[in-house]
Queue: 4 jobs
Job 1
Amino acid sequence: MNDWVIEANNLTKVYKMGKDVEVHALCGLSMKIERGEVVAIMGPSGSGKSTLMNIIGCLDNPTSGEYLLDGQRVSTLKGDQLATIRNRKVGFVFQSFNLLPRASALTNVELPLRYTAGVRNRRQRALAALEAVGLSDRVHHRPNELSGGQQQRVAIARSLVNEPAILLADEPTGNLDTRSGKEIIDLLLTLNRDSGTTLIIVTHAPDVAEKAQRIIRIRDGVVESSEQ
């Protein structure tokens, strides 16, 4: 029996542009991702890929359809409920790192724990996350004292500190040189193997996508293909 961490059933998303114009970003999209799987999601601009990522990451709700994250139906949640699920279940890694420029690596990684009720030993957990990404000797460095690859490692540590059900990496190598980008992908794959965290990578880069166990291609708001 499959253990699905992502279940999307017949998702639609319609954006209203003024009174008379509707943009159909998702058009009945369905997909499933197993717990611990490494999946790359690809698609051209305007395919609905970004909209799908916002729904998977609990940043937005579909217009219709059902979305379950880690067995919990979240497609109808609003406001604070959605934010709580997002903080507990999803780790984000962005192309632009999104670190606090005046805060240390340790403070940046610890930040999500400050918004999670009942968490103890925040500092110890943040230190452990930095050690896991190979930055135990950079905990007190600010972003401007780190290379691009090191900043992305801090962002990955921050995304993992809450032990999320999924790690959602949106073009994680986009602002990195080839060598640093390869190191980051290798690190994400190692963390997936060691922790079992489901890894979803949104990318335009074929060399990144081919590292995944499966490639899901999105076009015109639906899944065009799913390839092992």
Job 2
Amino acid sequence: MPELAQSHIREGGQDRTSLLRRDVDEAAARRSLREQIAHLERQLSALFTSAHPRRGLEWQVRAPGGPRLLGMGELEALRDDLAARVEDARRTLRDRAYVETRNRERIEEMMVEPERFKWVRISNDDIGEPGCKHWHARPRLGLIGMLMGWWRVKISSGCP
């Protein structure tokens, strides 16, 4: 077969060498696109597993129809869709991490000065952890404590 690719063969007025080279180039391009798609799928799965137990991240890879050989355009569209989803997942995780860090800092501030955070309630979900625990700034003795300015942070014991 390598001999055919290097020699010029004329069949029906067509140069056979150019046809073989085009097929080889397309095969390399398809292989490269499949490798890029596999790499993006691995990145998407790594982002999903690093986000556990958070919810709301789309991690499934949609199949473009039944079993068949995808064309170059379909492979490129699939690659571009995966790249956009990976970037969207990264942005979502980055935003969530920022909010969760701010909420952890807020809990620390609440513990030091509960009177600055009257009636504020932060749950485990707000800091990216599983469970039902929450921190709630409330008056120490109900109405009397509220009038006297006696505030504290009550930490729940978890799920009922």
Job 3
Amino acid sequence: MNAVDSLRRYRLAITGLLVVLLAGCSLAQPKRGDPGFAPVLPPSPAPTTQRSGAIFQGGYEMALFEDIKAKRVGDVLTVVLVEKTDASKTANTDTSRDTALTLPNPTVLGGTVSVHGRPILQNSVESQSAFTGKGNSVQKNQLDGTITVSVARVLPNGNLLVQGEKWIGINQGEEYIRLQGIVRPVDIQPDNTVESTKIGNAQIAYGGKGTLADSNRKGWLARFFTSILWPL
């Protein structure tokens, strides 16, 4: 292999490493109007036939005692965020291993195998290895607030699939809350609210973007040295 081929392979390896580095360390920035959290509009009512001379006209009725709870596609529902997690984990690992192997010089035809009186087939191997690892993780999270979502689908059993997002612009950045999950109508309170802990398959995301969020995020080079790509 000549010097030109070695340089070409070196450049190709560096390019591949940079591609993997940028792909693994880049963070997808959230955008407004994600289809997975967009509000769902109710279906348009079918046109009704107007009958002249009758007291009741279809499509103009008024329900005086109708429940205000969300129950149809397009209805809105306020979710009270009461998320709180507290987790801790501790792990200790200590291992060691010693290996010793001796292979004496064999005897062939009554004599040892040697060259100029020095045995050439006598060998010995010794190895030692030790590993000590410790880990301690403590994580606490709390999310309070409210977000109003819309009913995207009414399931066959009557449960409601809800989804929605809320964006708040603060100074030089934006904060957002996204929520998606399944709500039982029986868990909806009379004021049309439900606690987030009662939402099934809940997917709740809270984050931000902008100058303030970027200042609290590691740079791509620092993330590389703390990622799985770094061999040490």
Job 4
Amino acid sequence: MSPASPHQKALNHLKRVDPVMEDVIARVGRCTLSPRTEWTHFDALVRSIVYQQLSGQAAATIHGRVLKLIGDGADTPGRIVQTTHEDFRAAGLSNAKARYVRNLAEHVLDGSLPVNSLHELSDDEIIESLIQVKGIGRWSAQMFLMFRLGRPDVLPELDLGIQKGMQKAYRMRKLPTPKQVLKRGAKWAPYRTIGSWYMWRILEVD
């Protein structure tokens, strides 16, 4: 890998502190993780709610319909609360997701979720702020930290893909518990996001 890679410092650390990770990096290859910077934080959170538990193409289709209803940008929360539940259902959202999107907008409008300044908060503060919203749990908040904000030291211990990747990489007989994931990944700090990315990718390698 080129020394110019934005992840080179993280990879050097991971390989130094964890021989298993050194093998995983060699097998997977270059880290291509980069945060999604298009749209606003709010738009990214709406997208994350729409995409929950759906395949990529189905989610993209529904997300496209939702965007036609509410648009994007600074006025989106206001447009959401003016959109009927039936219109969201017609766009393909489940009852629950229609409520979640509205709840997100309400938290932003009443000031309880400082969505435009989330990037100024610590990881823990962001998680605490986001899990107030129905439909955004710890896992979704961690995905926001990793893929929207590019925070370097996030380990989603509840993620099944991370657990399966760790089981494969470390040749564990059983799927690790969230507590075991955190314990084994502790040595990756302060680059646990990159370690997590490799746990997902190792599942794609024979």
